[in-house]
Design brief:
The complex is a heterodimer of chains A (about 120) and B (about 120).
Chain A: E1 3-6, E2 10-14, E3 19-21, E4 23-26, E5 32-38, E6 44-50, E7 56-58, E8 64-68, E9 73-78, E10 87-97, E11 100-105, E12 109-114
Parallel strand pairs in A: 2-12
Antiparallel strand pairs in A: 1-4, 3-9, 5-6, 5-10, 7-8, 8-9, 10-11, 10-12
Chain B: E1 4-7, E2 10-13, E3 19-25, E4 31-38, E5 42-51, E6 54-57, E7 64-70, E8 73-78, E9 87-94, E10 106-107, E11 111-115
Parallel strand pairs in B: 2-11
Antiparallel strand pairs in B: 1-3, 3-8, 4-5, 4-9, 5-6, 7-8, 9-10, 9-11
Classes of the chains: A mainly beta (about 120), B mainly beta (about 120).
Chain lengths: ~120, ~120
Protein backbone atom coordinates (compact mmCIF):
# COMPACT_ATOMS: atom_id res chain seq x y z
CA UNK A 1 0.00 0.00 0.00
CA UNK A 2 1.13 3.51 -0.72
CA UNK A 3 1.44 5.77 2.28
CA UNK A 4 3.17 8.74 3.82
CA UNK A 5 4.25 8.93 7.43
CA UNK A 6 5.36 12.10 9.11
CA UNK A 7 7.26 10.87 12.10
CA UNK A 8 6.63 13.84 14.37
CA UNK A 9 3.28 15.53 14.89
CA UNK A 10 4.91 18.46 16.72
CA UNK A 11 8.42 19.90 16.55
CA UNK A 12 9.67 22.81 18.62
CA UNK A 13 12.93 24.63 17.93
CA UNK A 14 14.58 27.83 19.00
CA UNK A 15 15.03 30.67 16.56
CA UNK A 16 18.34 30.36 14.74
CA UNK A 17 18.67 26.60 15.29
CA UNK A 18 18.31 23.91 12.59
CA UNK A 19 14.96 22.45 11.61
CA UNK A 20 14.39 18.79 10.75
CA UNK A 21 10.93 17.51 9.81
CA UNK A 22 10.90 13.81 9.02
CA UNK A 23 8.91 12.02 6.35
CA UNK A 24 8.90 8.41 5.20
CA UNK A 25 6.93 7.09 2.29
CA UNK A 26 5.87 3.80 0.83
CA UNK A 27 5.36 3.54 -2.91
CA UNK A 28 5.51 0.78 -5.48
CA UNK A 29 6.87 3.08 -8.13
CA UNK A 30 9.36 5.90 -8.23
CA UNK A 31 7.34 8.62 -6.58
CA UNK A 32 7.18 12.35 -6.86
CA UNK A 33 7.39 13.95 -3.45
CA UNK A 34 6.38 17.34 -2.15
CA UNK A 35 6.44 19.45 0.97
CA UNK A 36 3.65 21.95 1.53
CA UNK A 37 3.42 24.58 4.23
CA UNK A 38 0.27 26.00 5.80
CA UNK A 39 0.46 29.08 7.96
CA UNK A 40 -2.34 29.63 10.49
CA UNK A 41 -5.70 30.27 8.83
CA UNK A 42 -4.09 30.27 5.42
CA UNK A 43 -4.10 28.00 2.39
CA UNK A 44 -1.35 25.58 1.42
CA UNK A 45 1.79 26.64 -0.36
CA UNK A 46 4.23 24.42 -2.21
CA UNK A 47 7.65 24.52 -0.54
CA UNK A 48 9.54 22.16 -2.82
CA UNK A 49 9.17 19.05 -4.94
CA UNK A 50 11.23 16.05 -5.97
CA UNK A 51 10.58 14.67 -9.45
CA UNK A 52 13.41 12.16 -10.09
CA UNK A 53 16.05 14.75 -10.90
CA UNK A 54 18.58 15.82 -8.28
CA UNK A 55 18.05 14.07 -4.96
CA UNK A 56 18.74 17.23 -2.98
CA UNK A 57 15.95 19.67 -3.65
CA UNK A 58 16.01 23.33 -2.71
CA UNK A 59 12.78 25.14 -2.03
CA UNK A 60 11.57 28.52 -0.95
CA UNK A 61 12.46 30.30 2.27
CA UNK A 62 15.74 28.41 2.70
CA UNK A 63 14.20 24.96 3.03
CA UNK A 64 15.58 21.90 1.34
CA UNK A 65 14.88 18.18 1.31
CA UNK A 66 16.85 15.11 0.34
CA UNK A 67 15.32 12.09 -1.35
CA UNK A 68 16.89 8.88 -0.05
CA UNK A 69 15.51 5.90 -1.88
CA UNK A 70 17.32 3.35 0.27
CA UNK A 71 15.70 4.82 3.38
CA UNK A 72 12.39 5.74 1.66
CA UNK A 73 12.72 9.14 3.26
CA UNK A 74 12.23 12.75 2.21
CA UNK A 75 13.14 14.80 5.27
CA UNK A 76 12.77 18.57 5.25
CA UNK A 77 15.54 20.72 6.69
CA UNK A 78 16.51 24.32 7.20
CA UNK A 79 19.83 25.46 8.70
CA UNK A 80 18.41 28.27 10.81
CA UNK A 81 14.80 28.64 11.91
CA UNK A 82 13.00 31.95 11.72
CA UNK A 83 9.92 32.95 13.68
CA UNK A 84 7.98 33.16 10.43
CA UNK A 85 8.62 29.43 9.84
CA UNK A 86 6.07 28.52 12.52
CA UNK A 87 3.40 26.65 10.58
CA UNK A 88 2.02 23.23 9.69
CA UNK A 89 4.08 21.21 7.22
CA UNK A 90 2.76 18.41 5.05
CA UNK A 91 4.73 15.74 3.24
CA UNK A 92 2.95 14.50 0.13
CA UNK A 93 3.62 11.72 -2.37
CA UNK A 94 2.21 11.66 -5.87
CA UNK A 95 1.51 8.17 -7.14
CA UNK A 96 0.01 6.67 -10.24
CA UNK A 97 -3.72 5.96 -10.26
CA UNK A 98 -4.62 4.49 -13.62
CA UNK A 99 -3.88 7.11 -16.23
CA UNK A 100 -3.81 9.86 -13.67
CA UNK A 101 -1.96 10.52 -10.45
CA UNK A 102 -3.21 11.10 -6.97
CA UNK A 103 -1.72 12.74 -3.93
CA UNK A 104 -1.31 10.95 -0.64
CA UNK A 105 -0.96 13.33 2.28
CA UNK A 106 0.84 12.94 5.54
CA UNK A 107 -1.00 14.09 8.65
CA UNK A 108 1.24 17.09 9.11
CA UNK A 109 3.93 18.31 11.49
CA UNK A 110 3.32 21.43 13.51
CA UNK A 111 6.50 23.49 13.81
CA UNK A 112 6.84 25.91 16.69
CA UNK A 113 9.72 28.40 16.75
CA UNK A 114 10.63 29.83 20.12
CA UNK A 115 12.39 33.17 20.55
CA UNK B 1 -3.83 32.63 -3.92
CA UNK B 2 -3.22 34.04 -7.34
CA UNK B 3 -5.34 32.42 -10.05
CA UNK B 4 -7.70 30.51 -7.78
CA UNK B 5 -10.44 31.84 -5.59
CA UNK B 6 -12.95 30.14 -3.33
CA UNK B 7 -16.29 31.47 -2.24
CA UNK B 8 -17.63 31.97 0.29
CA UNK B 9 -14.70 32.18 2.72
CA UNK B 10 -16.88 31.43 5.69
CA UNK B 11 -20.36 29.97 5.98
CA UNK B 12 -22.62 28.83 8.77
CA UNK B 13 -25.56 26.69 7.76
CA UNK B 14 -28.19 24.54 9.41
CA UNK B 15 -28.33 20.77 9.36
CA UNK B 16 -30.32 19.48 6.42
CA UNK B 17 -29.86 22.46 4.15
CA UNK B 18 -28.05 22.26 0.81
CA UNK B 19 -24.80 24.17 0.49
CA UNK B 20 -22.72 24.96 -2.59
CA UNK B 21 -19.10 26.04 -2.49
CA UNK B 22 -17.49 27.56 -5.52
CA UNK B 23 -13.95 27.33 -6.84
CA UNK B 24 -12.92 29.62 -9.67
CA UNK B 25 -9.59 29.56 -11.52
CA UNK B 26 -8.07 31.83 -14.11
CA UNK B 27 -5.13 29.53 -14.98
CA UNK B 28 -6.96 27.37 -17.52
CA UNK B 29 -5.72 24.28 -15.69
CA UNK B 30 -7.36 21.02 -16.61
CA UNK B 31 -7.44 19.40 -13.18
CA UNK B 32 -9.39 20.64 -10.18
CA UNK B 33 -9.84 19.09 -6.75
CA UNK B 34 -11.89 19.49 -3.60
CA UNK B 35 -10.35 18.54 -0.28
CA UNK B 36 -11.51 18.79 3.28
CA UNK B 37 -9.12 19.36 6.15
CA UNK B 38 -9.87 18.11 9.64
CA UNK B 39 -7.68 17.79 12.75
CA UNK B 40 -6.07 14.38 12.94
CA UNK B 41 -6.97 13.52 9.35
CA UNK B 42 -4.88 15.89 7.28
CA UNK B 43 -6.27 16.58 3.83
CA UNK B 44 -8.73 14.16 2.31
CA UNK B 45 -9.84 14.20 -1.29
CA UNK B 46 -13.59 14.56 -1.82
CA UNK B 47 -13.94 14.77 -5.60
CA UNK B 48 -11.79 15.78 -8.51
CA UNK B 49 -12.24 16.77 -12.11
CA UNK B 50 -10.02 16.14 -15.10
CA UNK B 51 -11.99 18.26 -17.53
CA UNK B 52 -15.35 19.80 -18.26
CA UNK B 53 -18.08 17.38 -17.21
CA UNK B 54 -15.45 14.82 -16.23
CA UNK B 55 -15.41 14.19 -12.51
CA UNK B 56 -14.58 11.33 -10.20
CA UNK B 57 -14.89 10.42 -6.55
CA UNK B 58 -12.16 10.76 -3.99
CA UNK B 59 -11.80 8.96 -0.70
CA UNK B 60 -14.57 10.81 1.21
CA UNK B 61 -17.20 11.53 -1.43
CA UNK B 62 -20.35 10.39 0.44
CA UNK B 63 -22.76 13.29 0.94
CA UNK B 64 -21.05 15.45 -1.67
CA UNK B 65 -21.58 16.07 -5.35
CA UNK B 66 -19.65 18.20 -7.82
CA UNK B 67 -20.17 19.82 -11.16
CA UNK B 68 -17.86 21.31 -13.73
CA UNK B 69 -19.68 22.92 -16.63
CA UNK B 70 -16.81 25.28 -17.47
CA UNK B 71 -13.05 24.89 -17.25
CA UNK B 72 -12.78 27.70 -14.73
CA UNK B 73 -15.47 26.67 -12.23
CA UNK B 74 -15.71 23.61 -9.99
CA UNK B 75 -18.69 23.50 -7.63
CA UNK B 76 -18.97 21.37 -4.53
CA UNK B 77 -22.48 20.71 -3.21
CA UNK B 78 -23.48 19.27 0.12
CA UNK B 79 -26.90 17.88 -0.68
CA UNK B 80 -28.11 17.92 2.92
CA UNK B 81 -25.52 19.29 5.30
CA UNK B 82 -24.67 17.37 8.46
CA UNK B 83 -22.58 18.34 11.46
CA UNK B 84 -19.90 15.86 10.36
CA UNK B 85 -19.35 18.05 7.32
CA UNK B 86 -18.18 20.94 9.45
CA UNK B 87 -14.69 21.42 8.09
CA UNK B 88 -12.35 23.60 6.12
CA UNK B 89 -12.68 22.96 2.41
CA UNK B 90 -9.85 23.58 -0.02
CA UNK B 91 -9.95 23.70 -3.76
CA UNK B 92 -6.79 22.96 -5.73
CA UNK B 93 -5.77 23.09 -9.36
CA UNK B 94 -3.02 21.47 -11.35
CA UNK B 95 -1.91 21.75 -14.92
CA UNK B 96 -1.49 18.07 -15.47
CA UNK B 97 -1.49 14.79 -13.61
CA UNK B 98 -0.69 12.47 -16.45
CA UNK B 99 1.25 9.33 -15.69
CA UNK B 100 4.54 11.00 -16.48
CA UNK B 101 3.90 14.37 -14.89
CA UNK B 102 4.35 15.36 -11.31
CA UNK B 103 3.50 19.00 -10.95
CA UNK B 104 2.51 20.47 -7.66
CA UNK B 105 -0.90 21.80 -6.89
CA UNK B 106 -2.02 25.40 -6.30
CA UNK B 107 -4.49 25.78 -3.48
CA UNK B 108 -7.22 28.26 -2.77
CA UNK B 109 -7.47 30.02 0.58
CA UNK B 110 -10.16 27.70 1.85
CA UNK B 111 -13.79 27.86 2.94
CA UNK B 112 -14.60 27.38 6.61
CA UNK B 113 -17.99 25.69 6.82
CA UNK B 114 -19.87 25.23 10.06
CA UNK B 115 -23.00 23.11 10.15
CA UNK B 116 -25.14 23.75 13.23
Amino acid sequence: AQSVTQLDSHVSVSEGTPVLLRCNYSSSYSPSLFWYVQHPNKGLQLLLKYTSAATLVKGINGFEAEFKKSETSFHLTKPSAHMSDAAEYFCVVSVRAGNNRKLIWGLGTSLAVNP
Amino acid sequence: DAGITQSPRHKVTETGTPVTLRCHQTENHRYMYWYRQDPGHGLRLIHYSYGVKDTDKGEVSDGYSVSRSKTEDFLLTLESATSSQTSVYFCAISESTGATSSGGYTFGSGTRLTVV
